[in-house]
Amino acid sequence: MTSVEVGIFGRIFRLRTNDPALTMSIAAQLDQQLHELKERYEILDFSKLLLLVALQQQESLSGLQAENTDLRKDLERMNQMISKIIGEI
Please, are residues 52 and 30 in contact by the beta-carbon 8 Å criterion? Predict the structure, then answer.
């Protein structure tokens, strides 16, 4: 693991990671999201902004998981159809 320093919302965090580039990219995205939310909700403090980001991320993750499940079902149906077609040849 490698140690990397990232800046998030004006604060420096030292993190250990197997992929420093990915960690830095994620931290930059998080920083951007926090700044965008701060522009919309000026009165919120850091912890509440983090909570909003966490809720947004969880909502996005839940949507992607549902989409992934649907795609897996579609793929399974397609594989069954292909197997049936190949079996008929």
Answer: no
Domains of the chain, residue spans: 2-88
Q: Between the CA atoms of 29, 34, 39 and 40, what dihedral angle is there, to the nearest 10 degrees?
A: 110
Taking only the tens place, the pLDDT of each residue in 63-78 is 999 999 999 999 999 9
In the chain, count of helices (H) and strands (E)?
Answer: 2, 2
Q: Kindly report the CA angle at 50 between 55 and 7, in degrees rounded to 5?
A: 135
Q: What tokens were used for 86?
A: 């190949």
| Distance of alpha carbon 30 from alpha carbon 51, whole angstroms | 12
